[in-house]
Design a protein that fits this description.
Blueprint (H helix, E strand, L loop, with lengths): L7 H47 L2 H7 L10 H26 L4 E7 L3 H12 L7 E7 L4 H8 L6 E6 L25 H7 L16 H20 L9 E5 L2 E3 L3 H15 L6 E3 L16 E6 L9 E3 L1 H8 L2 H6 L5 H13 L4 E5 L4 E3 L14 H14 L10 E2 L19 H19 L4
Parallel strand pairs: 1-2, 1-4, 2-3, 6-9, 7-11
Antiparallel strand pairs: 4-8, 5-10, 6-8, 7-9
Length: 444
């Protein structure tokens, strides 16, 4: 018998055989690993939801992610992160309220305009009595840059961050974000019907279809409004809750003016003034130093008075009785939706108190829903800072007097559209109806 010889063909065949076995093993292990990741994500989801349920069913229902995409995807991971952070925020908010006495709550709706956010935080830090305020930042994006910025103010501001759980970032390819099946905004109903795109039978009052970016702002405002008054025990003590946005700049005497106006609520209106605001958009009325010593009492009107507005728990409960009007009125603006809620459902005028010279400035013409084609955010920030310097002697008036001057007659109210899609109505109603459980069984 001839001795066995290792030929090149034998070596090659052996190599191919071993390689095939290795590839098969790798493929099997990869599939098993992916299956383990899916199970792990699903288990994590269950743990998060269980933890949320321990903090109140309302938080679980409104922050737990819906697994409508691959459970191992990054989107689901973000949704789980938001759910967990909101659960922890509830714990932190109520722990703070139990250990420290706060006189104000300030709630800020934040998107992604870092220049404005920095200016807002700087202005808050320079506000008298800010140490007595609990500042809640409600974000619709997860941003390390914003989180780092907020942390840098940790020594001067007591902040807690919450996250809107139905943001476009968390639902980029499906409702409440945009999907391929959605009708283009201005496609027109005949063409939409022909295409059979989603909600083609439900354009708004002007024949247009939903724009996710506009819808998100109203949903976010409504969500945080309910979140604060149902999840924060402090907010249910009728403490004043000041609502602001990331492109606002707060004057140093804003909280001082809030205190002064609250003292006047019982006497300045008959009956008692429903709403207090520390600002308005008619900035031209602040035409001299004397205007900083005056206040106005009169009707609260939609977008004219949506800045620096203050609500308390009694007002929240009243608004909650007409939640469906807010959710169904064809208007993508939260402020006008509130206006229609008051006039069409509550069917009465809401009297308000507001200083003639606003103590919160709107400086955001860049990057918002009404974005200008050319703008410079740093320019508007510097203008606000300069205005504060020039008005140093006019702030903190010792005595306020009522002005007979009106805040200009508001336009006839008509809906602005952008809110015809039944999906928006349903999500909005779900937010308010689910949160209403917390008014019956609130988080302690």
């Amino acid at each position: 018998m001839s001795p066995f010889r290792v030929t090149r063909r034998f070596v090659l065949s052996t190599f191919v055989f071993i390689l095939g076995i290795w590839l098969f093993y790798t493929m099997v292990m990869s599939v098993d690993h992916q299956r383990e990741e899916v199970i792990e994500v699903q288990e994590d989801q269950a743990v998060v939801v269980q933890g949320l349920q321990q903090n109140g069913s309302v938080v679980a229902a409104l922050t737990a992610p819906e697994i409508s995409v691959d459970p191992s995807s990054a989107i689901v991971t973000l949704r789980l992160l938001v759910a967990e952070r909101n659960a922890l925020a509830v714990q932190k908010l109520n722990a703070l309220a139990a250990t420290k006495t706060f006189r104000y709550v300030i709630v800020v709706q934040i998107h992604d305009r870092v220049t404005y956010i920095r200016a807002l935080l700087e202005s808050l830090a320079a506000t008298r009595n800010i140490a007595d305020a609990l500042v809640i930042l409600s974000l619709d994006v997860i941003s390390e840059e914003i989180e780092s910025l907020v942390k840098s103010f940790g020594s001067s501001l007591q902040t807690v961050q919450i996250y809107f759980p139905y943001s476009i970032e968390l639902y980029p390819n499906e409702f409440p974000g945009a999907s391929k099946q959605d009708c283009p905004e201005r496609v027109g109903k005949p063409e939409a019907t022909k295409r059979k795109c989603t909600s083609h039978d439900h354009p708004d009052s002007y024949g247009n279809y939903r724009t996710p970016g506009l819808s998100q702002v109203k949903h976010h405002w409504w969500w945080k409004f309910y979140f604060v008054f149902t999840q924060l025990s402090l907010a249910r003590t009728n403490i004043p809750v000041l609502f602001a946005e990331d492109d606002h700049y707060v004057m140093p005497d804003a909280l001082y003016m809030l205190d002064e106006l609250y003292k006047l609520r019982e006497t300045a209106c008959s009956p008692r003034c429903h709403v207090v605001s520390v600002a308005h958009h008619k900035v031209k009325l602040a035409d001299g130093k004397e205007s900083y010593k005056k206040y106005f009492a009169g009707q609260w009107v939609g977008s004219r008075d949506n800045i620096g507005i203050v609500f308390d728990y009694d007002q929240f409960k009243t608004i909650n009785t007409c939640a469906n009007t807010f959710c169904e009125i064809d208007d993508y603006n939260w402020d006008w939706s509130l206006h229609f809620l008051i006039t069409r459902c509550l069917k009465k005028e809401y009297n308000m108190l507001v200083p003639m010279a606003p103590r919160v400035l709107h400086i955001g013409d860049c990057g918002g829903i009404h974005h200008k084609s050319t703008c410079n955010p740093e320019k508007y920030v510097k203008q606000a800072q300069q205005q504060v310097l020039e008005l140093t002697d006019s702030l903190f008036p010792e005595k306020l007097s009522r002005t007979s001057q009106a805040l200009l007659k508001p336009r006839d109210a008509k809906v602005n559209g952008g809110w015809g899609d039944p999906r928006d109505h349903n999500l909005c109603r779900n937010i308010s109806s689910t949160f209403f459980q917390a008014t019956v069984n609130p988080v302690p």
